[in-house]
Amino acid sequence: MPVSKKTITFFGASTGVGLAALRHCIEQGHTCIVLLRKASKLDAHYPPDRRPSNLIIREGNAHDSAAVTSCLTAPGNRNQLVDAVFTSIGAVPTSGGLSISDPDVCKKGISCLLDGLKTLRSQGIASGDPLIVAISTISHSRYGRDTALVMVPIYKVFVGVAAADKQVMEDRLVASGEKNWVVVRPSHLTDGAKPDRAVRVGIEDIQKGVESREIGYTISREDVGRWCYQNLLGPAEVRKQYMNKALSITW
């Protein structure tokens, strides 16, 4: 069955999981709006003279409310919100990997996104209920251990600051009143796609508890992006068991 074409906004798609998901969306003909601090960040993948017509790049910061809001309506129809938003913004490690360059990167990003949607609706500019897919991380579930035991000290030491930021991001998304969202918590991210390797999915209701648990060690950035396209961004309707849940995905 052919997949209906969507308009999807990306924040944080110059590398990693976001770039992997973006590639799948572009290949399948979806209209993709990408907010980048520098448009040239995608030149190596989509040179300006060969850029697909369904790729729209806008320059701006994911912490700038005006820039974010400008990416939330469909091209050619400012009265309609985009079909989906994929946010995978993050910060680079500092202090030997013990912290990150901006400990508030995700909480600020989700606040700009949610405020933008609220403003567009409240001012009667645009309507709709886009699917919001937010890339988070394992290691901070409130309902027990969600990573391999041997990895627990590593996450506490090296991912603690980022995980705390991700948890606030998740909480703000849950409390926002948005109707359609999914949080994706990958295990330790590696490079190198392995499309033949099965992806296991654990499901957690952030407010009520674990519905199913899958614990693993690693998964590649490419396979997280592919899984998100195949199961969240591409389908006409997201599986009911995934909607408004946090998903732990791993090999």
Give unreliable regions as ranges: none
If helices are DSSP runs of H or I spanning 4 or more residues, what is the number of helices?
A: 6
Give a quick account of the main beta sheet: strands, pairing sense, barrel closure.
9 strands, mixed
Q: Could you state the oligomeric state of the chains shown? A: single chain
Average pLDDT metric: 95
Q: What overall form do the CA principal axes indicate? A: globular
* Helix share bin: 25-40%
- How much of the sequence lies in strands comes to 25-35%
User: What strand line-up does the widest sheet have?
Assistant: 3-2-1-6-9-10-15-12-13
What structural class should be given to the helix and strand makeup?
alpha/beta
- The gyration radius over C-alpha positions equals 17 Å
- The helix/strand order is EHEEHEEEEEHEHHEEEEEHE
GO molecular function: biliverdin reductase [NAD(P)H] activity; riboflavin reductase (NADPH) activity
Protein name: NAD(P)-binding domain-containing protein
InterPro entries: NAD(P)-bd_dom, NAD(P)-bd_dom_sf, Polyketide_Oxido-like
Pfam family, one: NAD_binding_10
Give a structural overview.
This is NAD(P)-binding domain-containing protein. Residues 12-232 form the NAD(P)-binding domain. The chain is 28% helix and 25% strand. β4 (73-74) and β5 (77-81) form a beta hairpin. It has helices at residues 16-27, 65-69, 105-122, 152-158, 160-175, 221-233, and strands spanning 7-11, 31-36, 55-59, 73-74, 77-81, 84-87, 93-94, 99-100, 131-135, 181-186, 188-190, 200-205, 209-212, 218-220, 246-250. α1 crosses α6 (221-233) and α3 (105-122) runs parallel beside α5 (160-175). The protein has 251 residues and is α/β, with parallel strands linked by helices. The chain is built from six helices and 15 strands.
